[in-house]
Amino acid sequence: MRVFAKLRDLAERRSRYLPELRTTEDRELAREIGYHQALGAPLTLKQVMRLGVGSSATAQRRLARLKRLGLVRGQRSPADQRVVELTLSPACMRAFLRLEEAFAAPPARHGHGEAAPRRHLCSLCDGTQAGSLMLARFLADGLRARERCVLIAGAEAVKPVLDALPSSLRRRAASGDLAIPGGLESADALGKYVEEAFAGTRLERRPLRLAWSVRSHRSAADVERIERQMDRLLGRYGGHVLCQYDVTRLSGGALIAALRSHREVAEVPYLLG
User: Fold this and answer.
1) Which is the most buried residue in 60, 79, 95, 249, by most CB within 10 A?
2) In which region does residue 127 sit, left (phi positive, over 0), alpha (psi from -120 to 50) or beta (all else)?
3) Other C-beta atoms within 10 Å of 262: how many?
4) How far apart are CA 135 and CA 128, in angstroms?
5) pLDDT in tens, 167-203
6) Same domain, 84 and 146
7) What pTM was estimated for this model as a whole?
């Protein structure tokens, strides 16, 4: 029955993008607070207590935890300073946006007829610092979800990306959870590695999350060739690929080829730095 596959997919995506929402009460509180925030009518503390999210003590304890984690904020109402309105933090709203984008992505078939997530994203940056932060955010999502993570980048770009990862994820990356292959300067070498990386996901039964940083010269023909290959492999195996192009180092032709080769261009939070 497809319903079980869909429920598994829902649970996997929720744990990937919103890992801090551990309990049913956490999820219900965040859902209701975010829903009313989006309507422009934030909930008050009294209204939250009337939602029936567990006992009053449980709701207050879970709400206090969400505040400590920086997921929920309490602010005085502009209309009545005696009233505290509850809203989701910008970081929490971005996480929900990523979840929304994941559900909107077209599914690829994978394994025993189940749908595997598939995203082929193109991002632009204007230098090492902005580019490193984008790549780190993308890879951090994969490390948290225990995906098979790969960073393809020049030697000078690797350390800034690792430094931008949270310390806990930096340790996991150093222990082997993040593959950083070298010697892929030629299009042939890169194409061969990408083919093997995708094929390996079937053995490990983990989706691939690959970040490709393009900061040195690549011809428009090479870009189109590699991007077509990645698109084909994503359709076959599923996974997530972020191809990042430094606008300060590449020709206009290569950048146009990059944008043409993607079905979608990354939006918040990966597009521009």
Assistant:
1) 95
2) left
3) 17
4) 10
5) 888 888 888 889 998 878 777 888 888 888 888 766 6
6) no
7) 0.54
Strand, coil or helix: 149: strand
Query: How far is Cα 33 from Cα 19, in angstroms, rounded to an integer?
Result: 17
SS (H, E, C) 35-50: HHHHCCCCEEHHHHHC
Q: Are 153 and 135 in contact (CB under 8 A)?
A: yes
**In terms of residue numbers, what domain contains 126?**
112-260
DSSP for 210-223 reads: EEEEE-S---HHHH
Residue 107 is assigned to a structural domain of this protein: no
Query: What's the structural domain count of the chain?
Result: 2
CATH number at residue 120: 3.40.50.300
| Within a domain: 99 | no
Residues 6+ away with beta carbon under 8 Å from 243 = 120, 121, 122, 123, 212, 214, 227, 230, 258, 262
Summarize the confidence of residues 73-92 as an average pLDDT.
88
